[in-house]
Amino acid sequence: MIKYSWVVVVLLCLLLFFFLMHEVQGEKNLAFDTYIGELFAVSEKTFSFTFFKFITYLGKSKVIGFGSLLCVLYLWVIKKDYLTMAVFSIGVSGGDVLNGWIKNHIQRIRPENQLMETGGFSFPSGHAMVGLIFFSMVAYFIIKEVKGNSLKWVVGIGFVCLVLLIGVSRIAMNVHFPTDILAGYALGVAYILTLFNLYKLLGRRVI
Known about the structure:
Blueprint: H1 5-25, H2 31-39, H3 47-57, H4 61-78, H5 82-106, H6 126-145, H7 149-172, H8 178-206
């Protein structure tokens, strides 16, 4: 039962995502968005604004694209691990394509009075979803390489905090509604858990 508990998590995340998508398509102001948005609101020319503006750049497509290229080159040239290289490439690019397709289908307009320039539709957040996919894969493969449980925990917790901060930064910059972030996380978790388990299955068959 525990072996397949990831399936339950995936299903719960998908249920949450589709619930949020249904609420968003109702085209009404959600109390959750208003409350969380006010909670994390920042003013320009403050330390919080500067900090979150820096953090949000870590989830941009250019940064993730460059990071993915470096990881693929490392897996190809140094590790010669072609299966992991393929899974990494397909995982990140597939997540990005899926996110873009859903955005164009839902077509939710971004919040007004944004604190930084951005384009495209709002739901679900690409920073939250694709950022979670990319950084989860990086953390997963680093944890596989490092020795010592303490160091593994440090790496895991560090990446979780980074992904959460990226999501919060999008709310703070007022370029996403909180429901966009939550939906991005939910779909990202469902996606990455499925990908990891397919990777394990393929790895056993190749070996």
